[in-house]
Amino acid sequence: MPHREPLSAAEQTFLMRLAQGNALSLQRQAECDTQRGLTSPSRAATAAPGAETRTLTILMISDVYLPRVNGVSTSITSFCAALERLGHSVTLICPAYPVGQTDRPDVLRIGSRGVPGDPEDRMMRYREVLALAPQLLAQAFDLIHVHTPFVAHSAGIALGERLGIPVVATYHTLFEEYLHHYVRWLPRRWLRFVARRLSVRQCHQLDALVVPSFAMRDVLSRYGVTAPMAVIPTGLALEAFTQPQTTDDFRARYGLPPTARLLLYVGRAAHEKNIGFLIALLPRILAQHPDAHLVITGEGPARAALARQARATGVGESVHFLGYLDRDGPLQAAYRAADAFVFASRTETQGLVLLEALALSTPVVSTAVMGTRDILADGEGCLIAEETHDDFAAKVNRVLSDPALRERLARRGQIHAARWHEDTQAAELVTMYLTSRRDRRTS
């Protein structure tokens, strides 16, 4: 069982200075560029010359938010908190959920209905969103930031026209790799064509586009998207991951052996996450580490099928499905209890859970596909594996067998994760917002 002491005061100070220094530097540079009208070649989007204020009032719109837990809601939460720390104001329009939501004055909940075949999600009422236009006009928003391509996108474009302000969006999801898992009765090539055409059409309605990785930018460019794109990953709330939030013994709580080797996966239990690959290679790990267990946290439509696969593979007793874990302690406890974090998704636009694992000193074994290529650097807290059972299992076995390697990856991972602090990413987003306002005024 891994034993990780909380970071020392000196280590916390070092990591926070690194992260906050990056954010402060970016914010100051954006302000200087704004005043001097300079363009920085190192950024996908630059500060706006002549911008009238350093404080922005931002309207975000999303088809998904808490209590629904996924990458989009995590990204929104991260950026809202960081933007407010930088002095900006954010209001969010999102669906109302039947249970579990927390009301806040800066979150406008819209009446919604269920989505057929997807019990976790809700569909906002379009007209109810547009009815907010007079109220929103009085608040003098500087721009609209859309996070999802459904009702939120259509309503965001319409509100942008009514309010006369720029509309930007984040392209969070590579839909061509998702649709065939859920619309199985249509040929995959048809679904890919539809997804690409819809993406191009929606992107060309925007003033600018945020993409979480260079790989995603390249994919959209191949689609034919010509809208300005800025590569701005979701940042990590480093402070929440550097100190224990619960005194519970994670292993005891879930009936896991105290000396077992724990492999952890965090994320939605969905087909496109390639969790089945992790289950299929588990016998190769058990051959060398018979006490290994694979812990899967998260819910999703593939959970029942994955449980059946584990039983059919003969590893049913070594695979544990825990459902969603709260991010204010239980999830951190899972990361800290694990000997290694394993990940093999083919469709990640970023892979924020990888940074969470690194920040908590959990060695990572992962493939590097799509957005995870931008996150991971071999040896910097992780070992990058090929998507083959033999190579992936060999790297997991290496991590489990070598305490010195685990310690080295744990330390390097903390430093690597600090470079992705959410304040740093929010400062980049502000720069992109200013550019969109400048371009709207001069077009």
Task: Tell me about this structure.
There is one protein chain. The protein has two domains: 34-235 and 421-442, Rossmann fold; 240-418, Glycogen Phosphorylase B (Rossmann fold, 3-Layer(aba) Sandwich). Helices cover 44% and strands 16% of the residues. It has 17 helices and 15 strands. The N and C termini lie far apart (60 Å). Residues 21-25 and 34-53 have low confidence and may be disordered.
Strand count, sense and barrel status of the largest sheet are: 7 strands, parallel
What would the average pLDDT be, to the nearest integer? 86
Number of helices: 17
* Outline: globular
Class of the largest domain, according to the CATH hierarchy? Answer: Alpha Beta
Q: CATH-wise, what's the superfamily of the largest domain? A: Glycogen Phosphorylase B
Helical residues, percent:
40-55%
CA gyration radius, whole angstroms: 22 Å
* Cα end-to-end separation: 60 Å
Secondary-structure content class: alpha/beta
* Estimated share of beta-strand residues: 15-25%
**Unreliable segments of 5+ consecutive residues:** 21-25, 34-53
Blueprint (SSEs and pairs):
Blueprint: H1 9-36, E1 57-61, H2 71-85, E2 89-95, E3 107-110, E4 112-115, E5 118-124, H3 126-130, H4 133-138, E6 143-146, H5 151-163, E7 167-170, H6 179-182, H7 188-203, E8 208-211, H8 214-223, E9 229-231, H9 250-253, E10 261-266, H10 275-286, E11 292-297, H11 303-313, E12 319-323, H12 330-337, E13 340-343, H13 352-359, E14 364-366, H14 372-375, E15 382-384, H15 389-401, H16 403-418, H17 422-442
Parallel strand pairs: 1-2, 1-6, 2-3, 6-7, 7-8, 8-9, 10-11, 10-13, 11-12, 13-14, 14-15
Antiparallel strand pairs: 4-5
